[in-house]
Structure formats: C-alpha cells, structure tokens
Amino acid sequence: xxxxxxxxxxxxRFCRSLLTHLDALYSFAWWLTHRREExxxxxxxxxxxxxxxxxxxxxxxxxxxxxFSILKHEWxxxxxxxxxxxxxxxxxxxxxxxxxxxxxxxxxxxxxxxxDLDEALxxxxxxxxxxxxxxxxxxxxxxxxxxxxxxxxxxxKSRLSRGRLMLREKLQxxxxxxxxxxxx
Amino acid sequence: MRCEIVKDSVDAxxxxxLGLTEAAEVRxxxxxxxxxxxxxxxxxxxxxxxxxxxxxxxxxxxxxEAMVRLLERRTAPRSWFARLQExxxxxPLAAIAVMAAMALLVLxxxxxxxxxxxxxxxxxxxxxxxxxxxxxxxxxxxxxxxxELQPLLARHQRRLDFSGPLSFPDDQEHxxxxxxxxxxxxxxxxxxxxxxxxNRPITLxxxxxxxxxxxxxxMSLTGKVFQAVxxxxxxxxxxxxxLIYSLVSDPEEADLTPLVEKLQHGTTLISVLSxx
Lengths: 184, 276
Hints:
The structure holds 2 protein chains of 2 kinds. By secondary structure, chain A is mainly α. Chain A has helices at residues 8-19, 22-32, 36-52, 63-78, 95-99, 102-110, 114-123, 126-137, 142-149, 153-176, 180-183. Chain B folds into 3 domains: 3-53, no CATH class; 62-120, no CATH class; 124-272, 3-Layer(aba) Sandwich (Protein Transport Mog1p, Chain A). At the A-B interface, helix 1, helix 2, helix 3, helix 6 and helix 7 of A face helix 1, helix 3, helix 4 and helix 5 of B.
C-alpha cells in the first residue's frame, strides 16, 4: 500500500474489527505458550503491532489470518525460532496405526475427551500443532495457514498429514492405557 | 489417480482449492478406494473432534477491558499539534508553506526589532554631536528665526510648550540664533542654536528623557551637570524634570558652564505637557 498512515476514523474502525478477533488470538496464544502472562503479552503486542502497521493491511483480505501471522511471528521472535527450518520430524507412519481396525480408531477419535485431546495436541511438535490448529480448529485455508506459518503450501499439507497421524496415535495411546492419565 | 496423490489432495479438496477436474478425480478415487475413503472419514472425524472439543479459551473479561482501554488510548483524538503533524506529513507542500509562514512570523518581527534596537542603541551623546555637525554642515540660518520661535514651535510641536525665554538679551556671549524641530532617538527634539562670539555655534538639544539611558559613558559628573569631551566636541548634559538637555560646542569653544547656568536658572524654561 502506498498510504503512510490511517485517519482517526479508519484507526477506530480497524480497532473495532481487531477486537472481534481477540478471543481467537487469545486461544491461539494459549496453544503456543500456556503461560497466562505470556499469552496476554503476546496478544497485546500483536494488537499494538497490528495497529502500528494497520496501513499495510490490504482491505479485502483476511484480517484474522493477518493477525494470526503477526502473533505467530512475534512468538517465534521471542523464542528465537524465526530461522528455525529443520523440523523436529521424528515421527514416521506407525505400522501399528495402519494395522488398527478402522472402527476402533474412529471410536477413539469420536470419544476423545477434551483433556486427552488437549494433551495430545500439546504433545505435538510445535510446527505440526500449529498447522493442525490453524487449519482444523481455526478453519483457515491452506494458503492462509501457509502465510501465517510463512511456509509453502506443500509444507502445510505435509505437516497436516503428519500432525494428524501423530495425534491419532497419541489418542489411541490414551485409550490403550487410561491409567496414564492419572500419572500425568 | 494414485492413493499418494489423493492423500496429498484431500485437504485442498476440503479447502475448495482444487480445480473442478481435479476435485472430480479425487472424489472418484475416494468413492472407489476404501482405504483412502477410510482415511478421509477418520480425518474428517478428527477435524470435527478438534473443532468441537479442543480448548479455545476466550480472552478473560479483565484482559479484554484492558485491551479496549489500551486501543482507545492509542486511537483517541490527538492534540491539535499531532493533527497538524499528520496533515503536514500527508501534504508536504502544505508543510513547506506553513514552515515558510512560521519563518516569516519569526524573522520579520525579529528584523524589525533589530532595526529598532539598532536605532535606539545610538547613544544620546552620539546623536547630539551628530545633530551639531549636521547643523554646521548646512551652514544655513535656522529655519525658525528667534522672533517666531515660540509660536512656530507651539504650532509644529504641540507637545512642547516653551514658557520661558531661551534668549538672554543681556548676554552678549551667547546669542540665540534660532531653532527647529528634529526627530531623533524616536522622538521629537527641540534643537536650538546659539552663537558664541563671533560665530561659534553651540547646539542645545531638549528632549523627553523617557526610555533614554542617562547618563551615558563617557560622561562624568561635575556639580549637577554631566560633561564629556567626545569625538573632539565639548558636551554638557543634565536632566531637569522629565527633560534632558544636551549642549554641544565646537572643539575650539571655551567653557559652556555660563550658558548651562543661565539655562538651569529658569527651571520652568521648558516643560512637557505629555511625552512624545
């Protein structure tokens, strides 16, 4: 955009739009850090950065996706992960998972408790967890998810596929050993 | 279409990102391949479970209120100066015009003040001597003859009222020749010329003293009169009421004291009705 800054009215409208996404930003930050102080700090910094850069936002595009990308970038910056490119890709398709009966697995997925699901999601490597959350929980498109994560579309597809398989395996693990919940 | 290709395309199919042909091919494969269809259904179930049960905590009310206040502060109407800054940033030509106007606002009064200060900074002593020289250079009879001095002065300079004689008929040493009204030191000044025998001019300046630093250097006090020999001229000055009297004589002129005494004796010689 060639504009230098917004007018007072435009800023006011931008802030009102921004506040409609506050809950989504808060919950995504919650998934990234889980520490309340850092969550609030991340969201606040995201909002202020967005306001400062409001003139760069292209109207007609997805404000929510833009805000998420700012938040994710800020989180990476704080944790010095911005240049991290090598994924903690230790997962490989489990033969056991392939062998499990489809009906049992479907039951595991459908009956998963929130606590188990949250725990399984948190156990995912951050790169996979973010891809799954952005696409499946926050309903961003592939392109928007790729933009937020600053990776190519193909990388998002790969992370989604691997992340979901890891999630399914973890949920299956909780079903197989329910007593583990008490120990965690 | 192979299963690997379908596996890579299902999310794009969900996303509506596939072209019509490709989407139809993926759907056809899913309808025909039970393994891929099973994976599709499991993934769909997982997506639903995540959407419905994964935690998505909302921002606490206190935090939301704090953010609203913070953003309101950031977008609150700004001061006139901040608005001016924004306007100038948006319109560089306006900025240049405003800066030029501000420069004029500062420089013009400053220049006038400097001119004024320079004029008023000319000391009384210097101006008295300058006037004496100017009169001498003209070598003309003063424009107001003695006989007409008082009424003419009253007409031309209503604020000065001569109530006493300036001439001393008995004094052959100091003969009143005439006078005129000058404008020196930002005020009207009565200038009177005497001739000391035979024709040595003596200039008397009578002027309102308000705003003039009196006495000035290098005047020195003798009795009640300040005197100075400056630029080769003899000068004597004194203050009487609100008026300052300055006498200037040529270098060869002798003591001015007798004339000073004569002028001082008539304390009501000259009075001012109101300052010029």
